[in-house]
């Protein structure tokens, strides 16, 4: 009986603290997390199915931020700021040339060199170092002011 009690106590602690959880508890994390696994749908802008810019726009819209619709428009938007890779922070957008003809894919940087995006296998988390994306990486842009970043990407709810 003692072994069972110790096991259950350990399991309860593990679940309570969710050791190794991918997500923290910021507003950005809580908005992205339930969308992981959502199917890919070309032109999709809802949890019934997303394309890359539809996913990005949906997440930001849930946070009260309006963005242009396409990855190409996002990349060229005058309200964004081009940033270097060493400046990346959660909420920045990362851009890729997956079509061979310029900007064609976008994701949301979530930290630890990873980004959330809608790919052919659905909404997922991928490392910027994954060879497919590393070869096609174009750069990053910042859309959030420092104040907004603090509210949605660092504040724990």
From TrEMBL:
Coiled coil: none annotated. It comes from the Bacteria. The keyword Transcription regulation does not apply. Residues 1-24 form the signal peptide. The keyword Signal applies. Residues 21-144 form the NlpC/P60 domain. InterPro entries: NLP_P60_dom, Papain-like_cys_pep_sf, Peptidase_C40. Keywords: Hydrolase, Protease, Signal, Thiol protease. Belongs to the peptidase C40 family. This is C40 family peptidase. It comes from Cohnella cellulosilytica. The lineage of its organism: Bacteria, Bacillati, Bacillota, Bacilli, Bacillales.
